[in-house]
Amino acid sequence: MKILASDYDNTLKRKKVSKADIAAINKFREEGNKFGIVTGRSINMIKDALRHYHIKYDFIIGINGGITLDNKGKILDYHPIDFQTALNIIADLRRLHNDISGFSDGIAFTRIANKITPLNLTRAFVMGLRTTSQKKILSSKNIAFFFTLNDNQAKVTEIYEHFSNNYDDISVVRNGLDVVDISALGVNKANAMRFVANYYDCQQVYVIGDSVNDLDMIKEFNGFAIDLAEDIVKQAASAIFSNFSEMFDYIKNKQR
């Protein structure tokens, strides 16, 4: 048995998810292997997308490794942020007047929007996402992930440095030019994939991604990059592919 975990945005979904890639995934699973998604999205967000494209999977890793579910919806692994720490982060985000921020319990997602203009593609995507009320997520006292979005590079740096320097119980990652992600300490895609490998007792683990938040798992598992990936990700990858059929052919040939 083999495991393949793919990032979603700009990796499996490149403008759209191709029928050829879906067929290749189905064939991989029919051969007795496991396929899963590893994404920065919350579970509800990624499930909506997978349903839209009729993509079958065995597991989902959400919010950059903060939560892992099987295909029945059972939570296998979960890493919330300390609740008081989470409340402090929310207060800081409001005080810092970041343009758009959000937080998630892993399943649902809510927004804090101080400024939405200029409404570029990324902002339009974030503002169009289905959300849950802040009150409902806060009432659960389970917050596992924050993101911040800002076009001002100096502000992004300020936010990144603020949370990196003032908190010792969270992981802070600058994801691209305009996003900062915050998770519980030690949460990342690589650690989540180690959990999945142990859960399925599998030694043959493959991963593919495109962005900085995929780097840790690509380095850990000698993973792959999609051809649209950032340069730093391509440099770390053991192979680069333009579609999933190419990747699965490579995996098969590697075993011969």
3D structure, described in words:
This protein is of the alpha/beta class and 256 residues long. The protein is 39% helix and 24% strand. The chain is built from ten helices and 13 strands. The strands form two sheets. It has an eight-stranded mixed sheet with strand order 5-4-3-2-1-11-12-13, with helices on both faces. A five-stranded antiparallel sheet has the order 7-6-8-10-9, with helices on one face. Strand 4 and strand 5 form a beta hairpin. The radius of gyration is 18 Å and the shape is globular. The two termini are 15 Å apart.
Q: Taking strands numbered 1, 2, ... along the chain, how are they ordered across the largest sheet?
A: 5-4-3-2-1-11-12-13
Mean pLDDT: 93
CATH fold-level name of the largest domain: Rossmann fold
The whole-angstrom Rg is: 18 Å
* Main sheet properties: 8 strands, mixed
SSE string: EHEHEEEHEEHHEHEEHEHEHEH
| Overall geometric form | globular
Q: What is the number of domains?
A: 2
Helix/sheet category: alpha/beta
